[in-house]
Records
---
Amino acid sequence: MDLCKYINSKDVAAHLRIIHYPFNTLEAAYLVFFCRSLTLKEKHKAWQEIIDAMPDMAPKDHLDHFCWAYFGDSIHACLKQHIKNEQFILDAFTQIKKGAFYVRTFDANDKECSTSTCSNALMTDIDDVYDYIHNYITDDEGELCKYKVYCAPDRSQKRFCITLNRNDEILDVEIDSEHYPQPQLDWQLETMWFAFPTPFKRGDIVIDAQRPEPSDLRDGPFVFDKTAAEWLTSRGKTGYDYTDMTADGWFLDEDGIVYGACTHDYMSLEYYPPEKLKGAQRILLPLRDHIKGEIDDVLFVNAYHSLLMEEYAKKIRLRYDTDEGCGSQD
């Protein structure tokens, strides 16, 4: 069973294939849950394959992140119940024809799209929702990745939220109601962390695989330092979650200034081709070489200063080289 295909980064997936990483059943369930490309139907199929092909295990014997009473002694049983609960919610939603519906648009990182023409229109028919999605929502910047359809079918307290991709395939289902069974894995898997190996070395230039062409320097490539896997392992298993699976490195702010920070999903990192760096991103090249010990402090500072001033000069020219600015030839 090729579990690496569920990893969001092709480079991390390739590395774990090469080293023949021995996934356990809980790790397999985690990878499927966080796989960004799978539809809900594909996740259910993948979890069923895990149940059929991999041994059962008691999560509490392997991790100690929270009260495992909700998991019990069987990850298989938990997966089966999760699939059943999500399917129950999905079936309930598909029966809804009338109600109060509205739509929001999101990018690949679950950030609401700022340039989409999605309005606050309130619709009362599910057919109108799909017509609205297909014919009235635009995406001028190409950032739109998914839709969230919110629905209140009647005067009760239950509220549905269905996430769709651009092909109208369902990615996720949620319901806010005490009268419906809740998917259990959502918050349980989000309270875990795993120390998966990665191929990245200190000084490599990497990027989040979901942001291949970022418009903001802060969301772009950065120089890798290390992951938190070793740090987490040394501190024990309690008190941390999936947001602690970080990668430290050196980033660029909107002005090209270097700062140290972290990104919260090292399993989504991929190598970034140095030849694709442009503008202020080129600062990462001498920074990479300095981190790897290939150039000394003086050469790095000179290169950094030269590139920073070059980009600053470009901004000044763009600001003033207009019909009204001092760069006018009239």
---
Amino acid sequence: MKAIESPTTIAPSASRRRALLSTAAAAMAAGLGTVLPATAEAAPSAEEAELIRLCNRLVAIGANEQKLYRTVPHATLEGEAQLQERLKPGDEEWRRIEERLYELDITPKTPAGISAMARAALAEAERTWDGEIVTLDLCGYLAWGVVESISPEANAAIEADVKTTGAATKRMLAASRLAQTEAQP
């Protein structure tokens, strides 16, 4: 995790998604010490079960988004248009999930809920090309540290996925620039 001031180093992803889970991660980190031990054996409520399901969908949407960035050539205007068209169903589902999460307005109380929210936060985190989470202040740095510690395997997998996507995107951009240079008289 790095504190980064320049948004120009951020890997391609839907930055509009960050506020929801960044705020939730900070709130969760603040209350984690009192929540986790007291409810270690509790089953999730119906609302928390829905939260878990929605968070799992966010993780899946994020993974699909990374896959599309890796596999759909998007270094040209036509390619970018194709990529955006393929991203549209996930974006629409994401908006519905975002709206429902705001409606639920709950803090998870079980290990399953806390873990699901941590994985979703990690999937939604703004990252560098190298997969490092971008933090802009001490609060963010501390909150993300807690989230990473809750779900280290998820963070490692997402970080590796973003690195792979970043490398593939850089190759696509380099190939496009080379093609444009060669096409010029």
---
Amino acid sequence: MYRLAIPHVKTRSLEFFSDGSHLVSIGGRGLSVYVWNLQEKKLVQKIPLNDWAVLFDLNYYLENIAIIGKRIVIQGGKQQLFVCSWPEVKDIQIIQFDDQFPLWIRSLKNHQGVLCHFSGSRLFQILDYDEENVERFESIKSPLLSPSMFLADVSADRQWIVTSILSRIQVTHCESENECVAEKYIDYYLKSAEFSPDGQRFVVVYSRFVRVFESIGANACCLPIRHHRKVQHAKFTPDGRLLTATVDGQVHVWDRHDYHHLTTYDFQLKHLRAFCISDDGLTVAIGGDTPEIIVFDLDE
């Protein structure tokens, strides 16, 4: 475990490069992107977006990061994606979405080189991403989505979609002619939803609880997993274990089969906000309202 001293207080978002060599973070006032060399444990690049933000009337924080190849993609504002190459940041491309009314980009995730984002009631994916063209979009079959939808995820094989409106979960198969195949209600408003790497299960976060469901039928795989503090994130590792991160800086590891508790990492981080797992599932990074990013290996 080691700590990266950061030149700002809040860390809003974190993402590993696919080879695990570098880590990208959004921090400060949310208008700068930082790239860290994890072998040398130091900051190697700061990408300021302040000038671009003024040019494109960005009045909101940058929120999410996705890494595709050697490109860094950042969600910003109501309708913008910022795209820049790395390590040579020659230019920053802005993808602007023009809709009849303002829509929030709900989330930004990278699945096997395909960047999916969710904007209001519409669900898109960027196809055939390469150095020449980042604006090829195709609408995914997106059943029963509404402007009040506030979270969603697409399985890595792009066969399943999970969406939520307030406390209602809807699961859809992409080849089911836009029909919802399962629906569940939770007693709380949901914070996030995340598929397992194989797409067979998904986990939802609400208040101090997380719960795992099967994609087919949305049957519960376990009872609600209760935490002592509010849960900020829940993600699966490639081998199927479940990791949950609570607001007080604790990271909990749960068994891949029956989700009994295995271990807890307690870093006493003030107000955990950002949490990510490397593609190989061996390394975790967390950040919050303290001037440091904590990077550690699972099972260390």
